[in-house]
Design goal:
Length: about 160
């Protein structure tokens, strides 16, 4: 198939004869890691599901707008499975569905502090120790120490 020159050519890559409840998976090139369909037009790649949403809704999306999959299937281009929002909406959706890669606290393999370290930091600060000294001792920045103190990092479970 020749490279498309028009946005309406996108429908050639989508099996839209399927029922609306079913995912219509992109039949063209997919991003290797993220699995999203890529629609190449005039030498540039676009996320296929964004173009599908715009074509189906006769609307143009702002760059800050994201198109989210209600079905959580990245190659899906069924316009009935797509909704728009901001990145924060997408993150909330991911967290609510427990799909995130983010592990909190000590379960995060990259965490520099343990639960015990956090307890010590809070106790030592309450006794007058300086944040900069504690940061050097625990191998973190003073910003991390103050965020721990202020319960912005390592939030106590009862304060969530």
């Amino acid at each position: 198939m020749a490279e498309p020159n028009d946005r309406s050519d996108i429908w050639r890559y989508i099996p839209n004869d399927l029922p609306p409840a079913q995912c219509w998976e992109w039949k063209g090139y997919r991003h290797v890691y993220r699995r999203y369909g890529v629609f190449n037009m005039r030498g540039r790649g676009y996320r296929a599901h964004r173009i599908v949403w715009e074509e189906h809704n006769s609307a143009c999306l702002l760059p800050a707008t994201v198109v989210m999959h209600l079905c959580d299937n990245p190659p899906c281009c069924n316009p009935y499975h797509l909704t728009v929002g901001l990145q924060r909406d997408n993150i909330h959706d991911m967290e609510n569905k427990k799909r995130g890669y983010h592990k909190a606290r000590a379960q995060n393999g990259r965490a520099k502090l343990s639960e015990l370290d956090v307890q010590w930091i809070r106790e030592l600060i309450s006794k007058g120790f300086k944040g900069a000294a504690l940061a050097r001792f625990f191998g973190v920045s003073s910003t991390v120490v103050y965020k721990v103190r202020d319960n912005k990092l390592w939030v106590e479970r009862s304060n969530k």
